Amino acid sequence: MSRRIISTLSIVLVLGASLALVACGGGKSNKLEIFSWWTVGGEGEGLKALFDIYHKQYPNVQIINAAVAGGAGTNAKALLATRLTGGKPPDAFQLHAGLEVEKYDPEKYILPLDDFYKSEGLDKVLPQDLLSLLQYKGHYWGVPVDIHRANILWYNKKVFADAKLQPPTTWDEYFKVVKALKARKIIPLAFGSKDGYEAGHTFETVLISVLGPDAYKGLWTGATKWTDPKVADALNTLKKLLADVNSDHSALTWDGALGQYFITNKAGMMIMGDWVNGWFISQNFTDYGWECVPGPKVFDGLSDSFALPKGAPDNTNAMNWLKVCASQAGQGAFNPLKGSIPARTDVDPSLFNPYSQSAMKDWTSEPIVPSVVHGAAATEKWATVYKDILATFATSGDVAAAQKALDQTATDNLAK
Ligand code: GAL
């Protein structure tokens, strides 16, 4: 074959391949890499439901699930930052609504999505509280797929019925329940602290309970001092609470502790976000009840969104991914499996189980405060130091030292 024929042939082949890609609507590439930390029960199923919808609409795009295990993004966030700064971004990545975005230097590394919000009419279908949380430096950086609640006390119905107990709504009631469960050789509170954020998670729910919603919010703006005696009260309550958890907690993740102790009726309660609801669904476990963590009824909220890095290889495919995440159908498929409620206000509530239906009502009727451990209330720098202080406190129990350290990091971070 002459050289000319070979090169004409290759041009025809390349053209043909590109036309085929354009025809299948997949943009210039046929890949879509989605980066998240959703790997366990409920999380995996929810993500797959979104992939399935995407796949139906863009059958020729190959989805690469780049999920990195570790609750609350413990391992994923650091890896993501390295990929962004190293010029190897995924096509879309999980990002909490709120100040977490500051970690990734958005003006340098993330595409603002204001035009997308306009074209998809998102300002009309997302609640105002969430829209405000999603803005940073005057732009939208992520498209929310859910709303989660962090401050839930889950209880095992069989364990409670056997011991003739009611779910506690005050700390006094809580510690009475603890006593009654211990008398029956039941672990009062199932706990997993393997990923290092869990003591901080539990503590934010106790802080909200002891300080109330406004004073809790003030901790992150400087309006409430960390030297407040109520912060010490909250640390003392946390210390008391952690005295009655399973002794192997540092070897278990939140789902590990549920599997080991909660669904086996060896523990009575767990304090964790409502991804637990998704996990129960994935295990076909239904014998659970829930209450707000003792204290005033407050919604400790957070939201998972997806953001698009600048310079990602498959931008058209990623834009289409955002459309699926933002859509009524996407959110109606994802959230009933994930345990969360939809970010959109127009998704049919009858798709959801009783827990999620109650969370939908609470979201509209209770005061909402931002979660710190899940990216909403403070920058990642501050939230990381906060988590480390609480992880140390979980073993040391030194109230004065923890309060001093919390106050110091607040001073450092508020000064910036
Ligand atoms: C949160 C996230 C949830 C859930 C949880 C446990 O940070 O918002 O979607 O995945 O971590 O990993």
Polypeptide structure, described:
The protein is an alpha/beta fold. The chain has 2 domains: 25-148 and 302-364, Periplasmic binding protein-like II (D-Maltodextrin-Binding Protein, domain 2); 149-301 and 369-414, Periplasmic binding protein-like II (D-Maltodextrin-Binding Protein, domain 2, 3-Layer(aba) Sandwich), CATH 3.40.190.10. It contains 19 helices and 15 strands. The chain has helices at 3-23, 43-57, 76-85, 106-109, 114-119, 122-125, 128-134, 157-162, 171-183, 198-211, 213-219, 229-242, 254-262, 275-282, 315-326, 328-338, 354-365, 380-396, 399-414, and strands at residues 31-35, 62-65, 92-96, 135-136, 139-140, 143-144, 146-149, 152-156, 187-189, 267-272, 288-292, 299-302, 304-307, 341-342, 368-370. The strands form 4 sheets. The protein has a 5-stranded mixed sheet with strand order 2-1-3-13-6, with helices on one face. A 4-stranded mixed sheet has the order 14-7-12-15, sandwiched between helices. It starts with a helix and ends with a helix. The model is unreliable at 1-27 (pLDDT under 50). The chain binds beta-D-galactopyranose. The site of beta-D-galactopyranose has 11 residues, from loops. Beta-D-galactopyranose is lined by residues 37-38, 43, 71-73, 148, 275, 302, 304, 374.
Set down the secondary structure blueprint.
Blueprint: H1 3-23, E1 31-35, H2 43-57, E2 62-65, H3 76-85, E3 92-96, H4 106-109, H5 114-119, H6 122-125, H7 128-134, E4 135-136, E5 139-140, E6 143-144, E7 146-149, E8 152-156, H8 157-162, H9 171-183, E9 187-189, H10 198-211, H11 213-219, H12 229-242, H13 254-262, E10 267-272, H14 275-282, E11 288-292, E12 299-302, E13 304-307, H15 315-326, H16 328-338, E14 341-342, H17 354-365, E15 368-370, H18 380-396, H19 399-414
Helix pairs in contact: 2-16, 10-11, 10-12, 10-18, 12-19, 14-16, 18-19
The structure holds beta-D-galactopyranose.
The site of beta-D-galactopyranose has 11 residues, from loops.
